[in-house]
Amino acid sequence: MKRIALTVLLAAALPLAGCGSDKKDDGGPKGPEVAWAGKVCDSVNQSAAQLRLPAVNADAKVYKKNVVTFLGDVDARLESMEIGLTKVGTPPASVSGGQASVQRTLARLRATRASLAQARTRLAKAKVSDQASLRRELTSLNKIMVASATYKGPAQDLQKANPALDKAFDSAASCAKQKA
Length: 180
Hints:
It is a single chain. The protein has 180 residues and is mostly helical. It is built from eight helices and no strands. The protein has one domain. It is 67% helix and 0% strand. The longest helix has 29 residues, at 60-88. Keywords: Signal.
């Protein structure tokens, strides 16, 4: 049961990992595309504050309610990322295909939000009376949330979508991976 619930919850939380790159600034580009990437990462990082996974509860109804709340919190964070990315706007003209990259990224973010909303609605409406019925519902949510499981967030989508943006994200200070 814990493994099923954890799979659902981690799939929902993955996009909130924030912005980051394992690569160090190698003296790459410093132009307007780097400033733009920095704004994207600032926006994503503001939306990616840590969420606490709901504690496992022996009462299936309470746990179901906690998971529904958690999925709602994840959706709110993803909505904040969408709004932030929209406000940042299009990359500079020096980035060939920048507008199309942003549109694809927004489409993927919206599809992920829709998947989470579908899972949340379905779980909220589910008749859960015991651990077995909760397990069945969480298992069925795994199928709905497949798209969310591989989604890493808008910054990573943009970075992978365009070589110029890849270099810009690697060079932007606010996109550097935070070390504990």
